[in-house]
Every structure is written in C-alpha cells, then in structure tokens.
Design a protein that fits this description.
It is a single chain. This protein is mostly beta strands. It folds into 2 domains: about 90 residues, Sandwich (Immunoglobulin-like); about 180 residues, Sandwich (Jelly Rolls), CATH 2.60.120.260. Helices cover about 0% and strands about 45% of the residues. The protein contains no helices and 26 strands. The protein has an 8-stranded mixed beta sheet with strand order 17-26-11-12-15-23-19-20, with no helix packed on it. The protein has a 4-stranded antiparallel beta sheet with strand order 3-5-8-7, with no helix packed on it. Strands 4-10-9-6 form a 4-stranded mixed beta sheet, with no helix packed on it. The model has no long low-confidence stretch (mean pLDDT about 90).
Length: about 325
C-alpha cells in the first residue's frame, strides 16, 4: 500500500507491503437421488449410483449406511458405484433410510453428501405350492367358486359345465368357470405357475369322440398375466368315474407382485372344439365333430382335485 502527502514542492510517500491469502471454501459432494426400490425374496436387483463434487474433486469415495446385509455397494471410482440387492428367504420387510454416502476427503474441512431411499422386500410365494379349485352352494355348477391352498377331502366331485361349442360359428372360447382366491392367499412375488391339472368329462354322451381344447387364464385384479392351452383332447367320456386328467402348461410370464391385502388372483377355464395352431380342426378320431353340448370340469374331491402350482421356479 502507498500513501502520498501531496506536497507541491517536495511530495513524499510511504509504502507498506503485506500478503493477502484467499482460502478455499470446500463444498459438499452431491449424490444423485436414488428412487425407492421394491424386490422379491430370491430376486436380484442392481442399481447404479452417481456422485459429483462441485469443487471438481474426482477422488470421491462411496460408502453405505443403514443397509441390510444383503445390500452391498461397489465403489467403481470417479463417483460411480453399483448397489447390489439380493434378499434371501425370510428377509421380507421395509427398510427405511438405506443411505449412500460420498466423501471428498478434503484436507481442511472434509465433507460428505448423502442420498437415502426406502427398500421394500416382498415375500415370495412358496415354491411349487398348490392351489386347489373349490365350490360351494351345490355339487352341480356351484354358484361360488374359489381357490385356496387346502387340498379337498370330500368323496363326491363337484362339476362346472361350459355352454355349447361350435366350430362352424367361429369356435369362440366358452367359459367353464372362474375361480377366485382371497387376497391373503397370495402375498409376495408370483414368478411361475405349475401346470393346471384338470379333470374333464362330457355334459352329454352324444358328444363322445369330440376333441376339445382347454384354456387356462390367470389374472391379477382383472389383468391377464398368464395363459396356457392344451389342444386336441381326446378320450373324454360322460362317465364321471372315467374323468380324464389333463395338464395345461402355462407360458412363462413376467413376475408379478401381490400385496396380500387387496390384490386378487383369479383362474378362468375355457373350452372350444379342438383346433390346431393354424386354426384348422383337429384331425383323427373325433375330428369330424363340429359342435358339442359342452365340456364338464370336475373338482373339489380327493380323487379329482383340480389344481395348479404357484411360486418361484
């Protein structure tokens, strides 16, 4: 700094030198928001995470706080990381404030940035558990159709009939019945279905020799999630004691979550005249039948317990 006295004859000044040091103000790193995550027991989920530093620090380190043991974080360097979530059996719960931490390791004022999320692990259905078809209110076409995990113990089979089927009038699928499970039956992740094992017979003996197709549809809250078809079924008779057991395999489908509170599982079973994949009528014995009075499905008895499997593969 210089000071001058402004004298008009012999001006003088004085000079004093000093140093000004401007310190660096450290700012905390920032972790990008992480959405809440939901995963079923036995499933695996990887979630990328990103952190940045407003001061340009590239040597951030990432850590994990408040996470269950089945959640791990791999620090990939440069503020990049990967969360690996792999819950096992018995871990179903809601985990609050699972937190990713980014640290800048500043030499004077080290700071951290954080991002927290909620992790929900849903209970998986028991592998290959069976769901049985039941009816109440009568033996023939009972008005109430239901599903549960309790094997039937009765000696007399109940049955549900379809309406008539006609190949020449479009051969539309005709309903046999729809069975509904209580919501508490199926909390968790439904990722696979075992074959529908159904017992079928004829409504009318005049239809002996007719070939039928049998279709199964599984719904969540009215939304179709899985289907299966068994084609060109033969050897079906009117005699209940000779009911034919049919396996209807379900096509693989995307896993679906059920909350166990309001979500409902339904099974619809339908039939039509036996048809090849190309839409032509099934050949061979019975292939000449263009129509039939309908198909009968037996269920809810020890000897003819129509059922299918639910759970994980």
């Amino acid at each position: 700094m210089r000071v001058t006295d402004q004298d008009p004859v012999a001006p003088l000044d004085a000079v004093r030198t000093f140093t000004v040091t401007v310190g660096n103000t450290n700012r905390a790193p920032q972790v990008a928001p992480i959405p809440n995550q939901t995963v079923g027991e036995g499933a695996v989920l990887d979630v990328p995470v990103t952190a940045t530093d407003p001061d340009g620090v590239s040597s951030l380190t990432l850590g994990l706080v408040g996470a269950p043991t089945f959640v791990t974080l791999t620090d990939q360097g440069g503020g990049q990381g990967l969360l690996h979530i792999a819950p096992g059996s018995g871990t179903a719960a809601t985990y609050l404030n699972v937190t990713v931490v980014a640290a800048d390791h500043d030499g004077v004022t080290p700071l951290e940035g954080r991002a927290a999320f909620t992790l929900t692990v849903t209970q998986a259905a028991s592998p290959a558990s069976k769901v049985y078809l039941h009816g109440s209110g009568g033996t023939a076409n009972p008005p109430t159709l239901s599903l549960d995990g309790i094997a039937p113990t009765g000696a007399t089979a109940k049955y549900q009939d379809s309406a008539g089927v006609d190949f020449n009038n479009g051969n539309a699928w005709v309903s046999i019945g729809t069975w509904t499970a209580q919501p508490a039956l199926n909390p968790g992740t439904l990722s696979a279905l075992g074959d529908l094992q159904a017992w079928v017979g004829l409504k009318n003996s005049d239809d002996i020799g007719t070939q039928f197709d049998l279709r199964a549809e599984v719904f969540k809250n009215g939304t179709l999630i899985a289907t299966g078809v068994a084609r060109c079924l033969t050897g079906i008779t009117r005699n209940p004691a000779l009911a034919k057991e049919v396996a209807v395999p379900f096509v693989p489908f995307s896993a679906v979550e059920f909350d166990g509170v309001t979500d409902t599982l339904r099974l619809a079973v339908l039939t039509r005249i036996g048809t090849n994949p190309d839409g032509t009528k099934c050949p061979g014995p019975g292939g000449s039948h263009n129509n039939a009075r309908g198909l009968r499905l037996y269920f809810d008895t020890k000897t003819r317990a129509s059922q299918f499997g639910v759970g994980a593969p």
